[in-house]
Amino acid sequence: MASTVYMFHAIGTLSSSDSADVNYSYSNEKFIEFLKATGPATSIVKAKNSNITNSPVLTFDDGHISNYEAALSLVENNLGHGDFFVNPAMVGKKDFMSWTQLRELSDLGMSIQSHSFDHIYLSDCTRKEQVHQLKNSKLEIENEIGMGVFILAPPGGRYNKVTEEISKELGYQSIAISKPGVWKDKDQYLIPRIPVMVNDSVTKLSECSELNSKYIRKMKRKYYITGLAKMSLGNKMYEKLRERIIGGEK
Ligand SMILES: [Zn+2]
Asked: 105, 111, 238, 243 — which has fewest CB within 10 A?
């Protein structure tokens, strides 16, 4: 297989009081145009459990309220499915989907997965805190939705070897990371994703689904450089610097 896994956040225009990061939002019109151009999409869970190969894969982090309408428009337009990574601590709060809405999406074939319990950086947590974040998010989502939780997307893409160990022990089948790349093997533990930013064109997103995409090569170089910055500055210093340059990261 060779699938490009896209990482979306909020879809549509955000009001000024919205807590979502505008840099990671994407217009509804461009979202639909991209899917009409690139063909029906699937979720990580569906791709793992079927013979689907090479379809674009949609993932949505944070459980923003706008994802409810986006998911309904996927169904209405026969544009496929996606995985929605949510934090039980945020579900039902202002700007976030409720459990009722998430159950509705699950009934429509969407997969509801874990984005940790509280949306904190796992790489900054002790082992005990990481166990809490991974275990209790999985249990609560499974309890509320009535479906298994098998995929973890670490908040801010921050995880470490301990995260991998614990997630394997708890029965997560894969971790959807924020490192750009192409998903090549259904059984690989770390699934790379392409972060979608507000100014990305439909052409750029569509070309990310092509073999040997020049955009993915460019993003890999950028990720390597920012990875070095995170390592040398530490998460907190890096965030401060990043906020000053382009705004926060969800
Ligand atoms: Zn997030």
From this structure: 243
Please provide the distance, in angstroms rounded to a whole number, between the alpha carbons at the two ends of the chain.
29
pLDDT in tens, 121-138: 999 999 999 999 999 999
d(CA 33, ligand 1 centre) in Å: 24
Rounded distance between C-alpha atoms, residue 39 and residue 187, angstroms: 24
Whole-number Å distance between alpha carbons of 90 and 84:
13
User: Domain residues for 70?
Assistant: 5-245
pLDDT digits (tens, 9 = 90+) for 59-94: 999 999 999 999 999 999 999 999 999 999 999 999
> Is there a domain that residue 162 lies in?
yes
Q: Give the distance (Å) from ligand 1 centre to CA of residue 63.
A: 9
Residue 66 lies in a domain: yes
Q: How many domains does the chain have?
A: 1
Give the distance (Å) from ligand 1 centre to CA of residue 115.
7
Measure 117 CA to ligand 1 centroid, in angstroms: 11
Domain for residue 250, yes or no? Answer: no
Distance in angstroms (rounded) separating the CA atoms of residues 47 and 37: 20
* Residue 67 alpha carbon to ligand 1 centre in Å: 13
Give the CATH number of the domain where residue 142 resides.
3.20.20.370
Each residue's pLDDT tens digit, 158-193: 999 999 999 999 999 999 999 999 999 999 999 999
Task: Give which of 166, 118, 130, 171 is closest to 148, Cα–Cα.
Answer: 171
